[in-house]
């Protein structure tokens, strides 16, 4: 049993559309932060010492914080929809794809307690990851606002005659990038695409694997992957494509890395096969 490259592409099209739409929405809402940052800096650059300067500073900061609040509200709503609707859709699509690949009745898939437990665990973990990024972005925006406010007060109180250094404020408080654990900075668009693609692919593959195990009682799965992709990581010399893996191995490594194109086909026809070892060629 094999899956052609064209079949693989066709079966991924709905998942790809789901991820693309969510990525565009997330990036569009994230643009509120650098746009609000630029608007605030342009306004603060025009302030000079004089009566009422503090009031004007506070008004501009308040307007910025309102945009940050709107960003938080809208992005939370977006990822709630992603977790509550889009990821379950990806899981179901993975399940149905597995049934099609084995010529099984699509009606076999139902949202049983086992499938519900699986999708609940996945969405909870992925939702938490995305919420953490949003909360981090809000904290960084608030830190920028405080720094911009302090810098402007130095100007309006006559202690800084050169004006605020907008470039330095943006450099020290970038709101158009995501900062990774290694302190590297990545455009929001790149991060969003990578994160949502990873979550969608893992969820869809778990849908396929769980359906194979629970509904088809498959003990073995055929792996379809990039020709040079390793099983546990891209660099792994144990290549994944075109191999048979145990159900446990498939569940442990639904994909190998961010951007992985791995898919799983249940092989219930191999149940009871003698001398079959996980990693054998299909």
Entry keywords:
three-stranded antiparallel β-sheet, 2 domains, two-stranded antiparallel ribbon, mainly alpha, 7 helices, 282 residues, disordered N terminus, 61% helix
Average pLDDT across residues? 94
Give the helix proportion (percent range).
Answer: 55-70%
Number of strands: 5
Low-confidence stretches: 1-9
The gross shape turns out to be elongated
How far is the N terminus from the C terminus?
Answer: 8 Å
Oligomer: single chain
Q: In what range is the share of β-strand residues?
A: 5-15%
Task: Explain this structure.
Strands 4-3-5 form a three-stranded antiparallel sheet. The chain has a two-stranded antiparallel sheet with strand order 1-2. The protein is elongated, with a radius of gyration of 25 Å. It has helices at residues 5-30, 32-45, 53-101, 113-156, 166-172, 188-214, 247-252; strands spanning 177-179, 185-187, 220-224, 243-246, 263-266. It is mainly alpha-helical and 282 residues long. The longest helix is centred in the N-terminal third of the chain and has 49 residues, at 53-101. The relative contact order is 0.14. The chain folds into two domains: 5-216, no CATH class; 219-282, no CATH class.
Topology (elements, then pairings):
Blueprint (H helix, E strand, L loop, with lengths): L4 H26 L1 H14 L7 H49 L11 H44 L9 H7 L4 E3 L5 E3 H27 L5 E5 L18 E4 H6 L10 E4 L16
Antiparallel strand pairs: 1-2, 3-4, 3-5
Helix pairs in contact: 1-3, 1-6, 2-3, 2-4, 3-4, 3-6, 4-6
In a few lines, what is going on in this structure?
The chain has 7 helices and 5 strands, in the order αααααββαββαβ. With about 280 residues, it is mainly alpha-helical.
